[in-house]
Amino acid sequence: MKFEKYDLVIIDELGYISFDKEGAELLFTHLSLRAGRAATIITSNLTFERWEEVFHDPVLTSALTDRLTHRAHIINMIGGSYRILETKEWMEQSNF
């Protein structure tokens, strides 16, 4: 599958699972091919400074964040979990 042929690729929860060397290089290659050509949305609970924990390679991590953040819209959402809030509201309505 070639990521570059899609108008939009969404990577949800980047950092939830670490990459091995081959996986990190493959993701880097695919995202590099898309950079500046097509839209990519990435969600992560980790700051960019912690992405090295996911990719285990400081050079690759630096190059990847550089490509992804160039001319990007970065939205930093700080706050509580909407899922936890919904669960609390649901529990209150259900009399748990």
From TrEMBL:
GO terms for molecular function: ATP binding. InterPro entries: IstB_ATP-bd (IPR002611), P-loop_NTPase (IPR027417). It holds the Pfam family IstB_IS21. The keyword Acetylation does not apply. Gene3D superfamilies: P-loop containing nucleotide triphosphate hydrolases. The keyword ATP-binding applies. Residues 4-86 form the IstB-like ATP-binding domain. Keywords: ATP-binding, Nucleotide-binding. This is ATP-binding protein. The lineage of its organism: Bacteria, Bacillati, Bacillota, Bacilli, Bacillales.
